[in-house]
Automatic annotation (TrEMBL):
Coiled coil stretches, renumbered: 278-368, 395-454, 482-682
Species, as recorded: Fopius arisanus
Descriptive protein name: Golga2 protein
Presence of keyword Coiled coil: yes
Matches recorded under InterPro entries: GOLGA, GOLGA_cons_dom
Signal peptide start-end: none
Biased composition (Low complexity): 70-80
GO biological process terms on file: Golgi organization
Compositional bias annotation for Polar residues: 20-42, 60-69, 89-114, 122-131
GO cellular component labels: cis-Golgi network; Golgi cis cisterna; Golgi cisterna membrane
Alphabetized UniProt keyword annotations: Coiled coil
Ion transport keyword on record: no
């Protein structure tokens, strides 16, 4: 292509650019508004000369260089890209970089909006004179992220191309005639150079402003650094003081740890001693449990013996009732026989009188017969002889009747003797039975005495056990307070739990003893009914009352132990709260130690050890919580025992009611005995001395006196029936 054709093409491009310029004015106005907003928001420290720099100068420069700039169309993006931060631009730029274009690079200021830079250097195509011809070079789109070095290279290339174009133009002008187009081109290039110089001068001015701004910012930076160093010194001094304080606290904690370790060793030795004492107590408790087992066996034997006594007593009562019935029947038979014997005696007396009269008559008749025989012999009449024979026959008949009457009397006497012998044998059997019953009562009394002695021995043993329990309680109370150290508290809580369990076992045994004592009370009430207010029963009652007092003391001691356990629990809660406070303090120290230097590593290691100790203590706390649950179970058992105690009290009330009923029955028996006395006096068969003896025997027992009285009446009735014989 010729130069003329190239110039024509450049003119066409310029015309097209001028046509597009009108369309880009609106876009340039919007870009200027956005640039002002960005400078107000992002670059508050930019001088006012840059902010007030109009966009029209750039537009004029673009219009005044129609041959140097070609634009293919409007910009593709309508939204401006964000401007970079001023601090980074100021640091990247320095005054040494801004020199004239002939010597060094001339960068475009980076604080301007990239869109304006695109308008000053169109992003699409730039015409460059090279070897006396215009060439279009397609440059890539300028992005705001490109560094200032690329911009500098771009400007240097433009300046070098313009200089080469001028040199080529001068060489060609010397060789060939300069036409009007070349003149126009030279004018255009000179105007471009003037504009470039003007822009370079403006950039120098901006660089000077930026350098002043940089100096101001450096002064501000120095002041800020001084303030920051002063602040750091101010902040570091209390931190160092805190470090010293924490070092002192760690030293104190280490000393306290050593003291605590020594105290723990002492408490461990004390706990070992206490464990040996607890083992001794366990052995003593085992011995006491064995003794209690023996006592329980003896009590079971006593219960069995009392049950046998009750059975024998019931059998005796049944035998007594049966014998009483038989005695009443025999008494009725005896009375009937006495009546019959009285009638028979009267009949015998009458018959005896009749016999005596008949004997007299016989004697008289014999005398008369002898006289009559003599007279008959003297007279010798046969009729008289016949009358005599008739009299003899009558006499023989009468003699036969007499012999028959004598035989009947003999048979009646024999029957009477047999009945008297049978009655005597029966009375002897009753006497033997009475003697056996009396012997059994005496043996029962001896057994009761043995039981009372055993009960006294049991009471003495229980008193000894109470004394031992009180001694052990005093020993437990004399232990040193162990609230300051958790391990000792754990050992003591375990020992206390064991003692509480043992105490509960003792309390259960005491309650069993109370139940057995109540059973013995019932037996004693029965024995009292048999003995009627015996002196030895009063001793047993006093012993039982003392046992009740001991049981009440044991209950009060249990309550005291519960109070002590509650105090220990409160102390443990205080310890747990103090532990929580310590953990919070440790966490605060950790947060401070993380901000400090490596000097706190040793302290953090010690804190880790403290953490492990806290974990152990937490495990101890869990064990104590388990112990707490066990204590709750123990309280539930105690409530159950209280319910049983209330039930036993109701049983005691029922026993008192039965005792009242027994007293009423006793009174009724006394009234019946009085009635029997009255009946005995009415019958007249019992003497006063025998009645007094029967009364004494009635006072000795409740049920035996009736038997004795009836036996005495039987003994007295036998001889009286046999007196007339």
């Amino acid at each position: 292509m010729n130069k003329s054709e190239k110039l024509l093409a450049a003119r066409r491009k310029l015309k097209e650019f001028q046509q597009h310029k009108l369309n880009n004015n609106h876009y340039n106005q919007e870009g200027s508004q956005l640039q002002q907003e960005n400078t107000q928001v992002n670059l508050p420290a930019v001088p006012p000369a840059i902010q007030d720099h109009p966009m029209e100068d750039l537009n004029e420069s673009q219009t005044s260089h129609p041959k140097n700039i070609s634009h293919t169309g409007p910009p593709t993006s309508q939204s401006p890209s964000p401007a970079p931060e001023p601090s980074s631009n100021l640091r990247n730029e320095s005054p040494s970089q801004f020199v004239p274009p002939q010597i060094s690079e001339s960068p475009i200021p980076s604080n301007l909006n990239p869109q304006d830079h695109e308008e000053s250097d169109p992003p699409s195509n730039t015409p460059i004179l090279q070897n006396g011809s215009l060439q279009l070079e397609l440059n890539p789109k300028y992005s705001p992220e490109d560094s200032p070095s690329l911009q500098k290279q771009h400007l240097l290339q433009m300046a070098s191309q313009v200089a080469d174009a001028l040199v080529d133009a001068e060489n060609e002008g010397s060789s060939m005639p300069i036409s009007s187009d070349l003149e126009y081109q030279t004018q255009f290039l000179t105007t471009c150079l003037d504009e470039q110089k003007r822009l370079v001068n403006q950039l120098h001015i901006q660089v000077s402003q930026y350098s002043s701004r940089v100096s101001e910012l450096e002064a501000l930076l120095s002041t800020k650094e001084a303030e920051y160093e002063s602040k750091l010194l101010r902040e570091l001094n209390p931190l160092k003081e805190q470090l010293k304080v924490h070092a002192q606290t760690t030293g104190i904690l280490v000393a306290e740890k050593a003291e605590l370790s020594s105290a723990i060793s002492q408490y461990q030795s004390i706990s070992q001693q206490k464990s040996t004492e607890v083992e001794d107590l366990c052995l003593k408790l085992k011995a006491s449990n064995s003794k209690n087992a023996e006592l329980e066996r003896e009590l079971s034997h006593l219960k069995n013996a009392t049950e046998e006594m009750r059975k024998n007593y019931h059998q005796l009562q049944s035998d007594y009732s049966h014998l009483d019935k038989k005695f009443s029947e025999l008494k009725k038979d005896k009375e009937e026989q006495q009546l019959e014997t009285a009638e028979l005696r009267q009949d015998l007396n009458l018959k005896n009188t009749e016999l005596s009269n008949l004997h007299r008559e016989l004697n008289d008749k014999k005398n008369l017969l002898s006289l009559s025989e003599l007279k008959i012999q003297q007279l010798g009449n046969p009729q008289e002889m016949q009358t005599l024979e008739g009299h003899h026959q009558v006499q023989s008949i009468l003699e036969q009747q007499l012999s028959q009457l004598r035989e009947t009397l003999k048979s009646v006497n024999a029957e009477k003797e047999e009945t008297s012998k049978y009655y005597e044998n029966y009375v002897k059997q009753l006497d033997s039975r009475y003697e056996t019953v009396v012997q059994e009562l005496e043996t029962a009394k001896t057994r009761i005495g043995d039981y009372e002695q055993r009960e006294e021995s049991f009471v003495q043993r229980l008193s000894v056990m109470e004394q031992q329990y009180q001694r052990e309680k005093q020993r437990v109370e004399t232990l040193l307070p162990l609230e300051a150290h958790e391990e000792k508290i754990s050992h003591l809580t375990k020992s206390m739990d064991a003692l509480v369990v043992e105490h509960e076992g003792l309390q259960s045994t005491i309650r069993e003893r109370e139940a057995e004592i109540e059973a013995m009370k019932e037996e004693l009430h029965h024995l009292r009914e048999l003995k009627e207010q015996n002196v030895e029963s009063l001793k047993l009652v006093t012993a039982l009352e003392s046992e009740q007092l001991g049981a009440s003391r044991a209950v009060s001691q249990n309550q005291e132990l519960k109070a002590q356990l509650n105090e220990m629990h409160d102390a443990f809660v205080m310890l747990s709260n103090s532990k929580l406070d310590l953990t919070e303090q440790l966490q605060g120290e950790r947060t401070i130690g993380r901000k400090l230097n490596a000097e706190l590593n040793k302290i953090e290691d010690e804190r880790d050890e403290l953490k492990e100790e806290l974990k152990r203590k937490d495990a101890v706390i869990e064990e104590l919580e388990r112990d707490k649950l066990q204590t709750a179970q123990v309280t539930d058992q105690m409530q159950h025992y209280q319910v049983q105690y209330n039930y036993n009290r109701t049983l005691q009330q029922e026993l008192q009611r039965t005792m009242n009923a027994m007293e009423l029955l006793k009174k009724e028996n006394q009234t019946l005995i009085a009635k029997l006395h009255a009946l005995g006096r009415d019958s007249g068969d019992v003497d006063e001395g025998i009645a007094e003896e029967v009364g004494e025997e009635v006072e000795a027992s409740v049920e035996v006196p009736i038997e004795k009285k009836e036996f005495r009446g039987a003994d007295l009735g036998g001889p009286r029936g046999g007196d007339p014989l």
